[in-house]
Amino acid sequence: MITDAVFRCYDKAEHYFSRSFERPAITFRRSGKNAGTAFLQQNRLNFHPILYKENSEVFIREVVPHEVSHLLVWILFGRVQPHGKEWQSVMRGVFDCSPSATHQFDVKRVSRSFSYKCDCDTYALSTRRHNNILKGAQYKCKKCSALLRAA
């Protein structure tokens, strides 16, 4: 379904710009809270499979054109602001979509947290902070100044 939606977007863009575009590679990997990601220099789109499954209609209608627009803007204009005037123009003109930079999906299921404690409390740290701790970073409690440690 997503692949078909991507190809339909490319068909629209080819009609709009009167030129052809190489179709991108499409992957489905979890990517934190990102619904989709455009890898410009690789001509690749990645979509979050769980967020797609839970929000398929909105995903097809908003996320797919959003990410396709990033690749098209890269091809047409080169390095520009990610959600700048060129991207907004493609979103509006080609896909008749509102150029929103963020999604409104419920990310509770895909947001993993890790439990850490100090001398006075327990905290839920993000995956990023947890990974930083595994690499040697240290975080202190703002209340008691003790180092956070795995709970």
UniProtKB/TrEMBL annotation:
GO biological process, one term: response to stress
Domain SprT-like: 4-151
Protein name: SprT-like domain-containing protein
Organism lineage string: Bacteria, Pseudomonadati, Pseudomonadota, Gammaproteobacteria, Alteromonadales
